[in-house]
Design goal:
Blueprint: E1 3-5, E2 14-15, E3 18-19, E4 23-27, H1 31-42, E5 50-54, H2 57-65, E6 71-75, E7 77-78, E8 81-82, H3 84-93, E9 99-103, H4 108-117, E10 121-124, H5 132-163, E11 167-172, E12 177-180, H6 182-188, H7 192-195, H8 200-203, E13 206-208, H9 218-225, E14 229-230, E15 235-238, E16 244-255, E17 261-270, H10 272-277, H11 281-284, H12 296-313, E18 317-325, H13 327-334, H14 336-352, E19 359-364, E20 367-372, H15 378-393, E21 396-398, E22 401-403, E23 406-414, H16 421-437, E24 443-445, H17 450-469, E25 473-482, E26 488-499, E27 503-505, H18 511-517, H19 520-540, E28 547-551, H20 554-558, H21 562-573, E29 580-585, H22 586-590, H23 593-606, E30 609-615, H24 622-627, E31 632-635, H25 637-641, H26 651-662, E32 666-670, H27 675-683, E33 688-690, H28 700-707
Parallel strand pairs: 4-5, 4-6, 6-9, 9-10, 23-24, 26-28, 28-29, 29-30, 30-31, 31-32, 32-33
Antiparallel strand pairs: 1-10, 2-3, 7-8, 11-12, 11-17, 13-15, 14-16, 15-16, 16-17, 18-20, 18-23, 19-20, 21-22, 25-26, 25-33, 26-27
């Protein structure tokens, strides 16, 4: 037998058609044997190996401690170690690294015994030059990596299931229990071993809370119907010892690759506390559900009473309007759960900085109002504001994160800035916007000029509505360039506002207002229609593979008519759907993963391409990323800019390129502005680039002339 190895072949990853070199450590005191192996591996047909040779086990141990070895070829007989002890030492030291034994026929039985101890196989002397040896080693390396990845994933899943607060229970297709997590064991009273293979109705004993009757177990219905099912709202779980607890959650079928049902999974949790909370609705009607602070309704009542008191006693009061700086970024990148924890922490710190007679209120989102009662002179409001700024700026350590947040504060004072609750809050709000404009993390007192800012914002919204109906919105196009050929592969459509008085306005000047007012949906439709029509025109001119990228905002993506509107635009313009690329941010997709996956699948059925824009700036689980049917990853320009910095060195860019390659996705680098950045991207096999090095966004006619130049801007292929 020339060589022996265990299990089946696995796929391995290529980058740009070149096999990634693997490093082999040869441990043998036979120089001729080592040379023969090195020569065989150096001339492998699918790419050479990197080989290292040591003659003693002690030298091997020293080398392995430095890491970087992909597979070990070891003789069982070394000057400082003999027999299975050699394998056992290596296996204990580096269990993740596959080990192949080198054996002659005389000691083949010992090599087989090493395989039984965990070796991946053995190579027989006299057959080292067999052309299948490199292929076998490469397969073993890849298989071992896959096994390690699967182990990590299984362990992560196990720890997750054991750590979550919900009970999780699964069954086979016959409805017999196959698994319970720790919480399910606690809630049912059954241990995992005792419940194994028992009927679900025996372990997961449910009765109707109203009728007290035992109904058909919902798991049986899920397996029968193949559909998700929510538990009855009044379901009671009867624990093994007879204790009853109200539960809620759902049951879902489990399918195999052939879409056949193999069982079901139940997730459930105790809702006793939730039911008790129903008795506190009177309190919740006047308090914020998350922080427990007075809400807008209770604040208005207390503020009106405070104004009436101040009028009778000729005193003053102050209203501080707070908005957290950059909270949306934290909320979108780390998720709403972390965002909520941060809001609770902020609320707690605000309460600690005011007197018991004052009121801290949460209006909603990341907006808070502090009512400071009695003789609230400007000096007192200033002291309170400074205390709040200092308190909130200290790190918030939440859910494994160290978060830094600041706030902008606007202050209005009664009676100078208003004589009713609505006016005082409105003017404090206007002062807060001014604090934002002044650089954030500061406070500003209201003055009449601030009303102009509020009016300006309102004016922008009114004029933007006119612009939508008056064809004042234009679409400019920025090329996306193939970094190998230097030719344009497509364009990104970018909106501009040709204001009759202010001239050409960039998106930053009006998109925030459009998003706040909901006008972004109408603007998105205009851009989509113009971009698709222009792409069809370019196709008709001979650019048959040209793709058009269009940004999709969160409001557009969540619009229930979005897919239907998109289909209509494609029909109207005649553009083949495969040449349209929709760009969405991670934060948009992660807000509701299940809903996002459903919409993305609808879009893929239409045939459009899907891209994640600003990749790396948001928060996403790689497991979810793999579920999204994404075609393109767009590296955010902030990471591209770091290529030329002394700190960044393009590490994140290289990581995204590698990940995108292995996921089968094209990678586009945004914000390419220098030749150094282009050289780095080209060297690391980035697919495409976009940025001012190639061209600024330009009108359609200018873009057409740009295409006529062939190789674009600074994108001449690097040799």
């Amino acid at each position: 037998m020339a060589f022996f190895f265990t299990k089946r072949r696995e796929r391995f990853c290529f980058r740009k058609g070149i096999m990634v070199a693997n490093t082999v450590l040869i441990i043998s005191n036979d120089a001729a044997e080592a040379k023969l192996l090195k020569d065989t591996l150096a001339t492998a047909r699918d790419g050479p190996f990197v080989t290292e040779w040591v003659g003693h086990l002690s030298d091997a141990i020293s080398r392995l401690e430095r890491r970087g070895i992909d597979i070990i070829l070891a003789s069982l007989f070394l000057p400082d170690s003999h027999g299975l002890d050699t394998f056992d030492v290596l296996f204990k030291l580096v269990p993740p690294i596959p080990i192949m034994m080198l054996s002659d026929e005389e000691h083949e039985a010992l090599a087989i015994e090493a395989v039984q101890h965990g070796a991946q196989g053995f190579l027989s002397k006299g057959h080292y030059q067999n052309s299948l040896v490199p292929q076998a080693l490469r397969n073993i390396i890849q298989r071992k990596k896959v096994e390690e990845a699967l182990f990590v994933e299984r362990e992560r899943s196990r720890v997750t299931l054991e750590s979550i607060g919900d009970g999780v229970l699964s069954t086979d297709v016959a409805g017999n229990v196959t698994y319970l997590n720790a919480e399910a064991e606690r809630m049912t009273g059954w241990s995992r071993d005792e419940a194994q293979s028992r009927p679900i109705a025996e372990v997961f004993h449910l009765i109707d809370g109203e009728t007290r009757q035992r109904a058909r177990n919902p798991v049986e219905m899920v397996i029968e119907q193949g559909k998700n099912l929510a538990l009855h709202a009044d379901s009671l779980l009867v624990r093994r010892d007879g204790y009853e607890s109200p539960i809620e959650d759902s049951i879902a079928p489990i399918f195999d690759r052939n879409n056949d049902i193999t069982g079901a999974v139940v997730t459930f949790h105790d809702v006793s506390e939730a039911k008790a909370m129903a008795h506190k609705m009177a309190h919740l009607a006047q308090h914020d559900y998350l922080t427990g602070l007075p809400n807008r309704l209770l604040l208005s009542d207390r503020l009106s009473q405070a104004i009436a008191y101040a009028k009778r006693h000729t005193t003053q009061l102050a209203v501080l309007f707070l908005d957290l700086d950059n909270f949306k970024h934290i909320n979108d990148s780390l998720g709403h759960a972390v965002g909520d924890k941060l809001l609770e922490s902020v609320a707690s710190r605000l309460v600690s900085q005011v007197r018991h007679s004052d009121t801290v209120s949460r209006l909603g989102g990341d907006e808070f109002v502090v009512l400071v009662l009695e003789d609230a002179l400007a000096e007192h409001a200033t002291i309170t504001a400074e205390k709040i700024l200092h308190a909130l700026a200290a790190p918030h350590r939440l859910a494994g994160h160290e978060l830094h947040i600041t706030t902008s504060i606007g202050i209005s004072v009664f009676p100078a800035d208003g004589d009713d609750a609505e006016a005082l809050v409105k003017n404090a709000d206007a002062a807060m916007y001014h604090a934002k404009k002044m650089g954030k993390n500061n406070y500003q007192f209201f003055n009449r000029a601030m009303n102009e800012l509020a009016v300006e914002r309102h004016t922008t919204e009114v004029e933007l509505r006119r612009a939508i109906n008056g064809n004042e919105l234009l679409v400019y196009y920025q090329p996306k360039v193939d970094l190998v050929s230097g030719m344009a592969t497509g364009a990104e459509a970018l909106v501009r506002w040709n204001h009759p008085d202010k001239g050409m306005m960039l998106p930053d000047a009006f998109i925030p207002v459009a998003e706040d007012s909901g006008l972004i949906v109408a603007i998105g439709k205009i851009v989509l229609r113009q971009a698709c029509g222009q792409a069809k025109a370019w196709h008709d001119q001979g650019l048959h593979s040209f793709t058009m990228a269009v940004n999709v905002s969160a409001l557009e993506f969540r619009d229930r008519h979005f897919v239907e509107s998109l289909r209509n635009v494609l029909d109207e313009t005649g553009l083949d759907a495969r040449f349209l690329q929709l760009e969405l941010t991670e934060s948009v997709l992660m807000r509701n993963v299940d809903s996002s996956i459903a919409v993305l699948r609808e879009l893929k059925q239409l045939g459009v391409q899907l891209a994640i824009d600003d990749f790396g700036t948001g928060y996403s689980s790689l497991s979810y990323l793999n579920q999204f049917p994404i075609d393109v990853l767009k590296i955010d320009q902030s990471f591209v800019q770091s290529i030329s910095s002394s700190v960044g060195n393009g590490v994140i860019v290289n990581a995204v390129i590698g990940m995108g390659t292995c996921l089968g996705q094209r990678v586009v680098a945004e914000g390419v502005e220098t030749s150094a950045q282009l050289s780095f991207l080209h060297t690391h096999h980035c697919t495409e680039g976009q940025g001012y090095l190639f061209s600024a966004p330009v009108p359609a006619d200018d873009f057409t002339r740009l295409l006529g130049q062939g190789v674009i801007g600074g994108s001449v292929p690097l040799q």
